[in-house]
Amino acid sequence: MMKIAFIAHDRKKEEMVNFVIAYEQVFEGHDLYSTGTTGTRIMDQTDLRIHRFMSGPLGGDQQIGALVAQNEMDLIIFLRDPLMAQPHEPDINALLRLCDVQGIPLATNIATAEILVKALDRGDLGWRELVDKYKPGTDL
Predict the structure, then answer these.
(1) What residues form the catalytic site here (predicted)?
(2) 42-46, 55-59, 80-84, 134-138 — which one is most confidently predicted on average?
(3) How far apart are CA 101 and CA 84, in angstroms?
């Protein structure tokens, strides 16, 4: 069972909901997390149960980032809107940096999200073993 987070900027929420609907069967049986509004919209359109944090601008990105920092997250799908300035850009950058530091797969567009979810569906989860083996602070 993997811990998966969904985050979507306002103009990407509908795209996220449609993506999750398309792969609902893949996400069943995993622990799902999301920022506030994104999680509500997904739950309204699917039978999935999602642990919702606060909305991104109110700290939801940081709450998910805290799980990443503790190596408690396995995969993040974060549909970002690159054409719109975000008031909480520093929080977004911090989350992206933490994913890089911890080696957590992060999809920021539908194409990458689909590749990761298809790997998840195949059970191709080798990245988790690498993250655990080479996580920061571990002697190699």
Answers:
(1) 61
(2) 42-46
(3) 26
Residue 56, domain member (yes or no): yes
Residue 23 sits in a domain whose CATH number is 3.40.50.1380
C-beta separation of 58 from 68 below 8 A:
no
Which range of residues forms the domain containing residue 40? 3-134
Asked, for residue 139, whether it belongs to a domain, the answer is no
Residues 6+ apart with CB under 8 A from 12: 79, 80, 81
User: Does the annotation mark 10 as catalytic?
Assistant: no
Taking residues 97-120, report their average pLDDT. Answer: 94
Annotated binding site for substrate: 9, 13, 35-38, 55-56, 88
What's the confidence (pLDDT) of residue 125?
74
Known binding-site positions: 9, 13, 35-38, 55-56, 88
Residue 114 lies in a domain: yes
Q: How many domains does the chain have?
A: 1
This prediction's pTM: 0.89
